[in-house]
Amino acid sequence: MAQILTPTVQWQMRTSKYTGNASPITTKMWNSLVLKRKGTSKSSAKFRVCALKSGRGTVNRMEDLLNLDVSPYTDKIIAEYIWIGGSGIDLRSKSRTISKPVEHPSELPKWNYDGSSTGQAPGEDSEVIIYPQAIFKDPFRGGNNILVICDAYTPAGEPIPTNKRHRASQIFGNSKVVDEIPWFGIEQEYTLLQTDVKWPLGWPVGGFPGPQGPYYCGAGADKSFGRDISDAHYKACLCAGINISGTNGEVMPGQWEYQVGPSVGIDAGDHIWCSRYILERITEQAGVVLSLDPKPIEGDWNGAGCHTNYSTKSMREEGGFEVIKKAILNLSLRHKIHISAYGEGNERRLTGKHETASIDKFSWGVANRGCSIRVGRDTEREGKGYMEDRRPASNMDPYVVTSLLAESTLLWEPTLEAEALAAQKLAMNV
């Protein structure tokens, strides 16, 4: 992996001894990501320091402090407040000392940040208030330290435009939605890029690897690029308490996927956003750029999606397949509404090629990955189960997608005329 990060320079993995307490991923994983350079060449200050220091030098002493467990000395913890920035996809965070360990976000104080520096407020009235909404264990600092997912409000208590969680929580709080216990399983795809050239990891700079085929779930130095990052992220999410359920290499080399779920209601969005934050931090440590662009490389290469598996209590019970069909009918009638909310740049991905449906046409099918909505063979055979919305892009907001699915299938009712026409069209497409 080190040679891929800096393809023109040879690097050697550096190991160091450490006997103190550590968080679940910092000792072994971080040691494998701290590199020592052979020879001399221009590089970043970080790598020059590693090359010049050895034994119990500066880097090791800093590592000791980063891994230090402070719980024997103080009850205080560090809470990393995390929120979504002005683009609606960028994540921001800052740290705060809390007097004692907490178990629920209601025990944490509200905080504020400079919204004029994130594109979310004017300079003359820049204060944005963040409300703690969900907490996770901090896999970087370990101990009782926590990651805090927040949403953002004006000082008057109004949600700012990029706060999509507020609206989602209202939908998931509706009694009709609560009674149906909506489950979500989200498949987050992402691409790893080389830092300076912004070209996929493992690809020759300015060139292309062999065609797609051997890379999906592949193993080997010529097929798998970035496995250490994927594995580190997997373990970090488990440590944090994120409901991550699996991971795999994707069809395009340098592209990976992990799955989160099943999660109920608003938890799906909280878990995805926290998992994205952890992935950003790990790629930061590795010196690799994380991309959630839905089509990072034009041409005959797969894009990156965020397929969202969805079911309700009625779908999971006997006769659920008919409930799924009714939900699909509703989704067909609101196709344009969903597409407009399913991620920026998604039109470059949803072309009808590379396991996608056309962005302009709604379709569904059993075991068909070229449809808007896919229903599994097991669901068809058993007459109950779930469906997969394959339209969301990798950069979608999970609060928006999950709540929109719940709204369209549980709260919204089409007119009888529209329902009949949609049923007729869908029957012709299947």
From TrEMBL:
One of its GO terms (molecular function) is glutamine synthetase activity. Residues 77-157 form the GS beta-grasp domain. It comes from Kingdonia uniflora. Its main location: plastid. It is an enzyme of class 6 (ligase). Homooctamer. Keywords: ATP-binding, Chloroplast, Ligase, Nucleotide-binding, Plastid, Transit peptide. PROSITE patterns: GLNA_1, GLNA_ATP, GS_BETA_GRASP, GS_CATALYTIC. This is Glutamine synthetase.
